[in-house]
Structures are given as C-alpha cells and as structure tokens.
Amino acid sequence: MLENKNTENTSLESLGEFGLIEHLTKNFTLKNESSIKGIGDDAAVLDFKENKAVISTDLLIEGVHFDLSYMPLKHLGYKSVMVNLSDIYAMNAKATQVTVSIAVSNRFPLEALEEFYSGVELAAEIYNVDVVGGDTTSSTKGMLISITAIGESKEEDITYRNGARPNDLLVVSGDLGAAYCGLQVLEREKEVFKVNPNSNPDLSMYTYIVERQLKPEARRDIVELLKTLDVKPTSMIDISDGLSSEILHLCKQSGVGCNLFEDKIPLDPTVIAACEEFNIDSTLVALSGGEDYELLFTIDQKEFLKIKGNPNLTVVGHMTDQNEGAHLISRNNSKIPLTAQGWNSFSND
Ligand code: ADP
Ligand code: MG
C-alpha cells in the first residue's frame, strides 16, 4: 500500500543522507521565541528563561505500534507528534519543540518519507511547535520512529501524577473508547481486503471512531481551558493505555484510592453503536481500549463550580483513602476492583 501508483518512486540512496535530511526539513521554520537554534548544527539551542523545561520521548515500531496497511504515512507523522505532545500537555505545560528521528528499510522510497513529514509538518503547524532536530538512519526491516517533545511551564503550574488527595474529584476530557473501536473497524477491513482486494467499503458511519484512531488530537485546548477557568489540577495524566490503568497510576503515585462511576464514563453514541456491532462491552473498551489521548486529572472539590457543565469535561468519580482501594461502581451499584486490564471480574471470565 506504500506505493503510490501515480508518482515515480525515488530511492533514498540516490539522495544521500544529507540530501535527504535537507529535502525533508527544508520547510521547517522556527515559530517559538524559545527556539534559538533548530535544525542544522550539532545540537539545537533552546531558551526558556525563567520557565522549567518539560521533556518526553516515545519510540514507535512498525508492526508493534502501527500497521502501514491501513495507516497512511501522513497520518502516522501527525499521530507520532500527537502522542508526544499529549505527554507534555499532561504535565499542564505548553509544548514548544519536537525532534523527529526515523529509521527506514530500503522498501521505503523518498515519497513515503515526504508523506510522513507532511503529517509531522501539519501537526507542528497546528500545535505551534518547532521541529528542531532529529536523526535519520536505515533499518534492516520496517520503520522506526522516535519523537522527543519539549515544552515549558512555570514551575508552580506543572502537574504531576502524585498530587491527588482523598475527596478530590476525578475528571476526564472528551470521550473514551473511540480509538479502540476505530481500530476494530480498520482490522476488520484489512481482513476483508485480504480476501477481496476490490472491496470498496462504506466506512462513513465509522468516521468519528476511525479518525480517533488514525488522526488523534492532543488536548492542548484542555490545558488552555483549565488556565482560563483558573483551575489547577492536583494531579494529571494522559490516557494512552485506557482509563483503568491511568487511574491506577494516579492512585499509586498519589497514595490514594478511587471510586469510578460506570454511568458517568463519557461515551460517544458511535462508540456505543460500534460496541454493539462488535459485541464488546463499551465500559471495558473505555477502561482498557487505549489511545484516546484524553486528559485525566483530579481537582479539589471546591473547584467543581468552575468546571460544572463544561461540555469538554466530565466528573467520573472521586478519590478516597488509599486503604479503600480503586473501584468501579457499576450501573447496578456493585463495587468492582479496577485492574490495569479493566476490572477484576473480567479477567476471571
Ligand atoms: P549528526 O551527524 O550530528 O547526527 P545529522 O547529519 O544527523 O547530524 O543531522 C544534521 C542536522 O539535521 C541536525 O540538526 C539534526 O538534528 C537534523 N536532523 C537529522 N535528521 C533529522 C530528521 N529526521 N528530522 C529532523 N531533523 C533532522
Ligand atoms: Mg545524525
């Protein structure tokens, strides 16, 4: 699927490493005051003045983290930046720079990398971050991507995972489970395509969930919203692995317990419909689906009025004393221990 039949393919060898880097990065301009030196020297130079630097890195491997048979390379470039920016926003910080390192095998032509970089460039443009460096090398098999995101924040605004206290409210942005449902649709279509390469499926009813899988957005807007509302979360994490495992991270690092209410978990109607179609439990999908890239945070109860009624934010539970443990309070009011996989009763099925 990599081959674009309408264009000539240019081998990477024909450009050489330096020609390739120059070609791929020629459009990158520096937009942030903190970017003193970007691509072109031995190292980038940044200046955050009185702010603290916040840094996060991720490694993505073809066949493990992404599948190029349904992931267009432009989307992959975009998503690779998003998953990293999400970690910066989860610190309540402003993302300012990224570095992008790639390794590809010789099955990738220049045009494939151009596609990937067009996604990186779009993400950098929309989220106002500068691409200030990276590394380019070959791999014996497949594609590897390593992105480092850099951000800045006033020291007192930085939000860690360890600040939640008993009675704090647990809040989530957006809705959950859609990226996992989108993946189920894409996996199914991949199998259909194997049997019938001429199938031309109508995926329009799945637009939202497929987009959530292929083109997620990091929640910069939520960090800005919290500043506007004058709410400083006591703890925060981004939801990359599923609500359940992220709640357990907050609980463990903060030394608290939690009650999560099943009927409060925000689900898009298309997620509920897809779960019915695939015969999977929508609560389980929200708890352990992953890749939603929403923000999960705790706030002091006295901040509740500031967020009340905001369509982007849902209170899904509250923190408790540590010895009470972390539980899902189900719709029929039973109390089920949360596990990283979802909830306890499920693992016994
Ligand atoms: P070095 O030999 O020091 O690793 P390179 O020749 O790899 O230097 O890189 C030259 C410049 O290009 C550096 O500024 C580096 O950060 C940047 N660069 C290299 N590869 C990439 C890439 N894939 N994306 C963005 N910038 C890159
Ligand atoms: Mg290098």
- What is the C-alpha radius of gyration, as a whole number of Å? 21 Å
The amount of beta strand, in percent, is 15-25%
Annotated CATH homologous superfamily of the largest domain: PurM-like C-terminal domain
> Helical residue percent?
25-40%
Read across the widest sheet, the strand sequence of neighbours is 8-10-7-11-9-12-13-14
Proper CATH architecture of the largest domain: Alpha-Beta Complex
Low-pLDDT runs: 345-349
Q: Helix-strand pattern, N to C?
A: HEEEHEHEEEHHHEHEHHEHEEEEH
In this entry the ligands are: adenosine-5'-diphosphate, magnesium ion
Highest CATH level, the class of the largest domain: Alpha Beta
Number of helical stretches of at least 4 residues: 11
**Strands, count:** 14
- For the record, give the distance between the C-alpha atoms at the N and C termini, rounded to a whole number: 38 Å
The overall average pLDDT, rounded, is 94
Largest sheet composition: 8 strands, mixed
**Judging from the principal axes of the Cα atoms, what is the shape?**
globular
| Helix/strand structural class | alpha+beta
Number of structural units classed as domains: 2
Q: How do you describe this structure in short?
A:
The protein is of the alpha+beta class.
Core attributes:
349 residues, alpha+beta, 60s Ribosomal Protein L30, Chain: A, Phosphoribosyl-aminoimidazole Synthetase, Chain A, domain 2, 8-stranded mixed β-sheet, 4-stranded mixed β-sheet, 11 helices, globular, disordered C terminus, binds adenosine-5'-diphosphate, binds magnesium ion, transferase, ThiL-like
